[in-house]
Each structure stands twice: as structure tokens, then as C-alpha cells.
Amino acid sequence: MCLAIPGQVVEVTDADKRLARVNVAGVTRVVSIGLLDTDDGSPGADAGDWVLIHVGFAISRVDEAEALATLDLLERMGTEYEEEMDEIRGSAIQ
Fold this sequence. Notes:
The chain is of the alpha+beta class.
């Protein structure tokens, strides 16, 4: 099962490549935030923002309350959530 999991942007690590370090339920990974950029080229995410992560890409911004509620729901899913977190722990964008 592939889930989109909320994470909080810790820092933009490469502005040109649109990569950011994101904390996903205690696991820090570098993900692409380029899909969130606006049509005029403005960054769509910055440090402190909450985003949904799917296969190494931030696919949307969410507010903190929604992110925390989603994390709570996912944690209660049990096995599927743990499998997804194992995938995140084993993944990395270089």
C-alpha cells in the first residue's frame, strides 16, 4: 500500500533542485518540493510548512492540524502504516 504521509519541512537543502529535508514521523528524509511551486515560480513550501509526502515528492501543503490528525489516523492503521514507515526509512533522494 502506498500512502501519502504528512511531514514538516525542516529546511530547503537545494533551492535550485527544489529539495528539502522533511521530518516524517520522526524520520528525516530529503524530498522534492518542486511540485508545490506556483506558476510564477514562487516556492510552494518552506521551512516549517507541513506537506504530504508520496514516493519522495511533496504533493500538497496541509495545515498543522490536518497533518497531526492524519498522522494519528495513520498510526491507528497499524501494519499498513508501519510498512509505509519502513519504506520511508529505507528510501532517500540523492
